[in-house]
Each structure stands twice: as C-alpha cells, then as structure tokens.
C-alpha cells in the first residue's frame, strides 16, 4: 500500500461527508440510506407476513395491514430497489471503472443525493402523519379521494423528489461513460456493468420524467380537482394507469439491468475466464431498455383496454424473454471450462441464476393473455415480481456488495459468514415465495388482509421462509459489521479482477488513481497472478520491465 | 411399482398445472392448456439453467487438482443465434396459443344472444341486475347459456374475478366494461374482488350460482319479486322525471333530438362524419357530456344531465327495451 491517505481519511468531520462531491463518499452515504430503507421495508414485510399467519388476520386491523403493504412496497421500490445498485454501487465504481477522478458532474451528484434524502424524509413524514393505504401503485380514484389528507400529498412529493434524484444519477452516468473513459478504453472495452448502467441511464432519463409528471398531476388533481384522473370531476382513472406504468414498467428494468451488470462482472472474475459473448450481453441490455418502453400495457389487460392493444402488448412483452435468455446462456457459457472459485459473491450469483430463471419464466405466464387474465392481481404476480425484484435484484445487490466491499472499506469480510448468508437467503427466499405461486395459481388475490382457509398452510410456509430470509440478511449485516471492526486489511485486488477499480489501492485514494490508467481489456486475466490471500493478485511483471 | 421419474413428474404436475382450481366455464380448459404449455417450457429451461450451473460448478470448481481455466472460445456467433432462435420460436408458439384462447375469453360466440347482467361494484359488495329485472347480491346464471356482464362501479376501481371461470374484469367508475362467459358446470363458485379497494377489500365477495336448467333459474327469479325497483323501471321513471321525452321520442317520431326507439346496438353517423355504435358507454357519454358526439343532423344543444350510476344503467336498460319496439 502507498501512503496512508485514502478517500475515507481525506477530510475530517461531518461536513466533509455531507457536502462532499467525492463520488465514493456519496456512494457510501447512499449505501447507508439504502440499507436503512431495506431494513424499514423489511420490518413492514415482517408485519405483513405475521398478520397473514391466520386466515382472519388479527395481528393488526385491516386498515393497518393495508398501510403496511403500501409502505412496504413504496419504501422497497422507491428507496431500495430502484436506487440500490446504481446509486450506491454505481456511484462508487463507475468513475473507477473508466479510470476517472470523479463522475462528469460531481455537484449534480451531490444534489441528486440530497434530493433522495428529501424524498426519504417525506416518506418518513408520511409515516408520521398516519401513513397511506393506497398501495404503492397509487391508483385513483382510491388514492386521490377528497377524504385523504396530508399523507398522500407528502408521498407524491416524496416520489417526485426521489424521481429527480434518479434522473440526475442517470445523466451523470451517461455523461461519465461517454466523456471520461480512460485513454485507449473503447466502447467495447467497457466492463459490462457500465453497459448495464448506460442502458439503465437511458431509461432513467426518458421514463422517470413521466413519473414526475404523473405524480405532479395527481397532486394537482387532489388539491384543485382538475378532472384528469378522477371520474367525479370528468377525469379518467385508466389514464393514470397508462402514465404510471409507462414509467413503472421500464423501472423494472432500472432495477434488473444493473443487477445483471453485477452478475456479468462476478461470473467472469470467479470463473477466471473472459465473459462469454461480450457484445451480445452488452447489446441485450440495450435491447431490454428499448423493448421495455413498449410493454407497459401488460399491467392493464383486464382494465377494459381494447382487445387489440392487449394482443400487441402481449407480443412485445413476450419478446423481452429473448434478450434475457441470451444473457443467461452467456453467463452459463462463461463458467464452461472455467476455474470456478466459490466465494461469497459467486455463491450469490449462482443463486441469482436459479431465481432469475424462475422470475423470468413466470413472466411468460403474465405476458401471455390467456394465463394473465386469471393470474392478474393474484399472489402469482406477487411471487413473480418478488423473484425478479427481491430474488434477482437484492441477491445481485448483495453479490456486488460483498464483491466491492474490500474496495469500498479496505477490509475483508469473514468468508464463512458470507457463505452462510448466501445459503440462508437462497433457502429462505424460495420457502417464502414458492408457496405464493401456488396460492396465486389457486386463485388467492393479492392485497388481502384476510383470506380463505384453504390458503393457510401456504401462507404459514411463506411466513416461516421470511424468517429464514430475515436471518440471512442479519448474517450478512453481521459479516459487514464484523469486517469493519476487525476485518483483515484488503489488498488492492483480492479477487483478481481485471477492471480498473482493482488497479488502485483499497480503499482508493481521494483522486482514485496515483497515475491516470490506460484502458485495458476488462476480462483478460492473463496479466494477473495470485500472490497470497493477504496480498491478493498482482500484475505479472513484464519481461525487461524494471 | 412407483418409479422415481413418475414420482418427480407427478409432483411437478401437482405443484403446477394440477394446482389450478376446478373448471366451470367454456374457456377454462383452453386456459389450462396454455398454462400447462408454459409450465413445461419453464420446467425445461429451469432444468437447463440449474443443471448446467450444478454441472459446471462440480466439474470446473477450483480445487488442488485444477489450477486454472482451460482454453475455450470467448464468443460464438453460431451459439448465440442458436440460443436466440429457440426462445424466439417458442415466443411465437406461446403467443399464438395464448392469443387464440384469449379471443374465446373476450368474445361470445357470434349469434349466441347472451343474457345481459348489469353488475355494480361498490365498497364492499357486488350488485347484479339480471335480465328479467331481478336484482341480487348474487349472480345467477344457467348452465350452457352465454352471459354478458356489463360492469360499473360507483366509487373506486374493483375487479370481478371467478377463479373457476378463469376470468376477471375491472369495474371502472365513469365507464362500462364487459365480460362474457358460458358456465359449464352447475354449482356455486366464489366471486372475488381483485382490485384493491380499501378496508374490506378481502371480504368483498359474492357467489355465482350456476343453475342446472332454465326452470331452476326462473323459479329463483320469481322469488320475492316486486320489492326493489328494477333497472327498467328506474329508466322509465328517470326518462320522464328529467324531461328527456321533451326532445327524444320513444316511438321513432322526429323531435328536437333523435328518437331513442330502435337505436340500441345501431351504427349511427355523427356530425364529424365518423360512425359510432350505440352502446352503454355511448349512452353514458351522451348524458354526461352531450356535446361530445352529436348524431348527424342534430344541433349541439342538450345540457349535461347529472345522473347517478344506477340511473344511467336504468336509461340504458330502457333504451335497450325499445330496441324492437312494441
């Protein structure tokens, strides 16, 4: 290691964090808030699961239950899944991966962080004034009825602010990837995580404004009764659904594309082989981003939408299966004849394959009209999107966090705890959500505070699974806390990664690199050799070099 | 003797297609076939994904006897085309199979003259106005007789769902939506609400009673009749009270506005030159926003008439009753 100074020790005091324009510190602050949001959303989820232990509910009132699932959804989606990977990990590694000192617009980055804080504070304020029970989807007329007070207005404003935070992050990443790549780093020398964030940025910039407009219109409708969404003033509630899903379906790809990016990095590094089919993986991210804009109507197959619109949306939705399949097969092919190292990040990625497989394939049931009509708004849908958003995204988030943790903190974590967390989360996740597929197939609708007797066994199994899942998350948290307290010093390159973030010390210095690096092939591992567990991987010394 | 593959396949079916509820409508079997097709395609791909993952981890994991990766290509256009083409072909198969069944789910057989039932969703119960005028909290239909539900909501969005029929349709305030089906098995099935609507969303339930024959239905329809005003009676009353008859005749004679006799289901020219079909949504719009689509040859002079949902349904029922004239 070079001199003692790094980005963590550069500048002291609370102000040096809160007003920092250093992308690494902003990433760490995002990580803290996002982890807190995950905790908060998780607590709401546990209340929901315990309430459903008995068919008649009984833990809380129906109204309180309705608030719980609403807040669970809203907090998890707007404050954990959407910003999770891009804002926390993206902020930290994007400039490092292109060999830059910072993102293109560091001050905008800080603004984006504070907008996110504003959004989060408003969500907490919503809680304080009594919460909302509209469902995270906020469908009018229910969400905008005149009896609603401050809660809904605070929540709409919170979504608006969080949305702008997301847009600014997207702008920053796209500009950084375009303009700040290291000398010699062409587009096809970019790590696939950056291709994924680039595709994500496109969606953030083009789709999120529609969310902003929608919630702003909702706000104005509630206050001034303009007659946009509310039938009693001459508006159309289905129009809201179009606007909402025009953002919120692409938002699913804001969540999953960065997750896929992490998987691409980790699977290559821990197979010690170049990623298979680089260009196909990169282009499939772009394809998903583009097709993702054209499928929103599949949320409205039973809303009374025209038959032909349904048929077209169904076809476009099914097409998303193809780029998703291409990615999956390329990841598997990367492992072929590799040297597979089963460390924690890789274990998470292996469980991602199975869970994303189920999540993606069950999407076919909901894209196909004949099966969507019975399954729509049942627990089948709940299970499907949890497989994608929790299973796939959260597991990839944890994979990335274990993978970059040594870089972020300069400390290694306890491998046994990491492995235990990955296994517990995989088992707990499946025990929680597989029964929900069965309940939905059998006809249990979602958002039910009480349910028919026949579903009791499945619901109890699901609740037991959620306890395992929570235990897995606690073990992961324990691994991180223990690492901060007593973890071994991390070498610059503990995994033998070839992307540029591994070419600088852990944690990186304030300016990222002592000498501006040149672009390298991100998946060429031939120039690295393993020194020892403590020293990690180092570049092979070239013949004749000093 | 029980063989392991049978046991595996058996438990897979029990966990997937075998988990569907009973079938009680003409489209249920088609839906289940599509479900089965998707299930087996998914099962196949899961076996491929998980199988290769496990195989590769076992064969290629780092261990003392394996010190590094073996040389292998890092791309193959032929493979990429192979594993893009197979999902693409399957997407076409799934789309074709699903869409064919879907058309049967949303269209009644041509010429089948379904029984119309007006459905009203409200927090937190359903109300069904049957064709003969009988209103009930339960839906009553007859085995083998096609039914057309016309759904409305008086407050927020609800969604009518009968798992055994494999059908679901939102009831949206401010418009009418439609659902068609033909029940195939006599019995009672739960009617659920599947669009979140507040406190008692989960108990907004009803029952659809499928009568084994018309006589059984007629006997039910005759019970306790004459209590509530039927939709048709509401329509006749409102048509008089609101002064509709001043401009709209009910016998086909010309007036300030078009006669309402015999217009139900007709294609009508409007002043913009376009053609519209006179259905419940057009009638609702013509009452709430009369100027939106004016019948060709008439002036835009009718004021909006504030009617509640039930009154609008009544007018619809009245205009419908004037279809074939006395």
Describe the structure.
The complex is a heterodimer of chains A (546) and B (326). Chain A is 64% helix and 2% strand. Chain A has a single domain, classed as Cytochrome C Oxidase, Chain A. A two-stranded antiparallel sheet of chain A has the order 1-2. Chain A has 546 residues and is mostly helical. Chain B folds into 3 domains: 7-56 and 77-106, no CATH class; 115-222, Immunoglobulin-like (Sandwich), CATH 2.60.40; 231-321, Cytochrome Bc1 Complex, Chain D, domain 2, CATH 1.10.760.10. Chain B contains 7 helices and 12 strands. In chain B, the strands form 3 sheets. A 5-stranded mixed β-sheet of chain B has the order 3-2-1-5-8, covered by helices on one side. In chain B, strands 4-10-9-6-7 form a 5-stranded mixed β-sheet. Chain B has a two-stranded antiparallel ribbon with strand order 11-12. At the A-B interface, helix 3, helix 8, helix 9, helix 10 and helix 11 of A face helix 2, helix 3, strand 7 and strand 9 of B.
Write the layout of secondary structure elements.
The complex is a heterodimer of chains A (546) and B (326).
Chain A: H1 14-18, H2 23-51, H3 62-97, H4 106-128, H5 150-179, H6 192-224, H7 237-269, H8 278-291, H9 307-319, H10 321-335, H11 344-367, H12 369-375, H13 379-409, H14 415-441, H15 456-486, E1 528-532, E2 536-539
Antiparallel strand pairs in A: 1-2
Helix pairs in contact in A: 2-3, 2-4, 2-15, 3-4, 3-5, 3-7, 3-13, 4-5, 5-6, 6-7, 6-8, 7-8, 7-10, 7-13, 8-10, 11-13, 11-14, 13-14, 14-15
Chain B: H1 4-15, H2 28-60, H3 77-106, E1 115-122, E2 125-129, E3 135-136, E4 139-142, E5 147-153, E6 158-162, E7 167-171, E8 177-181, E9 187-193, E10 206-211, H4 214-222, H5 231-241, E11 267-269, E12 275-277, H6 280-288, H7 309-321
Parallel strand pairs in B: 1-5, 4-10
Antiparallel strand pairs in B: 1-2, 2-3, 5-8, 6-7, 6-9, 9-10, 11-12
Helix pairs in contact in B: 2-3, 5-7, 6-7
